[in-house]
Amino acid sequence: MERGLIVTALLLLLTSATTNAGGTRTLLSPGPSFREAPAFRNGNGCPSPLSQESTIHMAMTLDSTYLRGSIAGVLSVLQHATCPENIAFHFLASSPRPLRRIIASTFPYLSFRIYRFDTSLVRNKISSSVRPALDQPLNYARIYLADLLPKSVPRVIYFDSDLIVVDDVAKLWAIDLGSTAVLAAPEYCHANFTSYFTSRFWSDPLLPDAAFGGRVRTPCYFNTGVMVMDLERWRSGKYTAKLEWWMGVQKKEARIYELGSLPPFLLVFAGEVKGVEHRWNQHGLGGDNLHGLCRDLHPGPVSLLHWSGKGKPWLRLDAGRPCSLDGLWAPYDLYIKRSTDGAVERFADD
Ligand SMILES: *[C@@H]1O[C@H](CO)[C@@H](O)[C@H](O)[C@H]1NC(C)=O
């Protein structure tokens, strides 16, 4: 995390905005530079962007490591939305200032807010997992959305920073959570649920029943990178404290799982989640957590591609060794690559 702070401090000091002859604002060296996204306008029949009831609220995290992925994700949401002006983004970041400037210059027409996520909230609650990237405090920020976002936001779609949509998020937003569900997400009942927890957990006389006793349905795996969250039910049910309680068991009492922020969500919500069509999270495209090999799509239609796992499309594309599906991410990449001599290469629409 110290390294992350230094990187963002450098961004803050050194990034400068200039306007080139064509009027395109481009961020010049030595921070990351992104092309400006076009203005996306509402189609016919969209409600007024001023009407709060018709706003679609999206939440994502921003940090220097995944910034390129977050920006591609935002662009994909806008590009496939029928009513892009009705979408509001809520970004969580541990050092908002330099990131706010980059988002504002990349998306000059975007309705967004950045909230500071205080990493000390979770730092001492995290236990190390199988992959260090999973232990970044910002991975746990989704647990605190209900506290950080204003009370006027009743529902939010949370997206990880390594995904793109190829469909209108309004369809995901419209899901009916029924009378009790706090979360909606695609569920995977064929995945081996047992394997997400250690034998220490399953052999404990109390813990499995404390977690899953009395669930309305069989607990199934779901991926926490795509979730529709009812923030009002979350707040009144004190779900942040429930997730923190299980993190405390893992940290202080017994190693009950190997992954990062996912298992606490399974412990609290599995079997109570409102199922979403699988097309809304074609996950695992980054390969597994250790090797990051290429993966294929699961059978069926696709609305969202998610490079969960170790491999990330921008890294594989830059290394000249992309997986074939990484080509589907590339059109959303606004990053301006620098050639080795430090000059800025301009791409595509310039
Ligand atoms: C599921 O995972 C557990 C723990 O890793 C393993 O013992 C069990 O054999 C697996 N079950 C199936 C059906 O693969």
How would you characterize the overall build of this protein?
27% of the residues lie in helices and 15% in strands. It is globular, with a radius of gyration of 20 Å. 39% of the residues are buried. It has one domain (54-332): Spore Coat Polysaccharide Biosynthesis Protein SpsA, Chain A (Alpha-Beta Complex), CATH 3.90.550. The strands form four sheets. Strands 5-4-3-6-11-8-12 form a seven-stranded mixed beta sheet. It has a two-stranded antiparallel ribbon with strand order 1-2. By secondary structure, the chain is an alpha/beta fold. The two termini are 35 Å apart. It is built from twelve helices and 13 strands. Mean pLDDT is 88; it is low at 1-29 and 341-350. Belongs to the glycosyltransferase 8 family. One of its GO terms (cellular component) is Golgi apparatus.
The side-by-side strand order for the widest beta sheet comes to 5-4-3-6-11-8-12
- Total domain modules: 1
Ligand set: 2-acetamido-2-deoxy-beta-D-glucopyranose
CATH architecture: Alpha-Beta Complex
Beta percentage is 5-15%
Q: What is the helical fraction, as a range of percent?
A: 25-40%
Fourth CATH level, the homologous superfamily: Spore Coat Polysaccharide Biosynthesis Protein SpsA, Chain A
Classify the secondary structure makeup into a structural class. alpha/beta
- Topology pattern, helix = H, strand = E: HEEEHEHEHEEHEEHHEEHHHEEHH
Spans of at least 5 consecutive residues with low confidence: 1-29, 341-350
Enzyme class: transferase
Family: Belongs to the glycosyltransferase 8 family.
Membrane topology: Single-pass type II membrane protein
EC number: 2.4.1.-
